[in-house]
Amino acid sequence: MDILDESLEILTAEECAELLRVSMPTMYSMLSEKREPGKIFGRRVGREWRILRSEVIRFLSEEPIPSEPTPTPVEALA
User: Fold this and answer.
1) CB 1 within 8 A of CB 8
2) In the 8-state DSSP scheme, what is residue 2?
């Protein structure tokens, strides 16, 4: 099965991880059953995840969430 086949609309977590080139632990941390920024929306079917290809495309095209800058030691003590 070729995961780049456009006719395949529903991906497993493993296929999604392969497509995004991330590890499975990273993939699982990116998945959510709620629609929230910075997460990939998916559904659990039993113990497995199912993700729409369009959701992966949406995730890749959204603006990154700005992270809080790490304080310097001087700022942390202030």
Assistant:
1) yes
2) -
Residue 51 has a CB neighbour count (10 Å cut-off) of 24
Name the pTM for this structure: 0.68
Measured between alpha carbons, how far is 22 from 77 in angstroms, rounded to an integer?
A: 36
- Does 32 fall in a domain? yes
Q: Encode pLDDT of 11-64 as tens digits.
A: 999 999 999 999 999 999 999 999 988 899 999 999 999 999 999 999 998 877
Q: Could you tell me if residue 5 is inside a domain?
A: no
What CA–CA distance (Å, rounded) separates 3 from 35? 24
Residue 54 counted as domain residue: yes
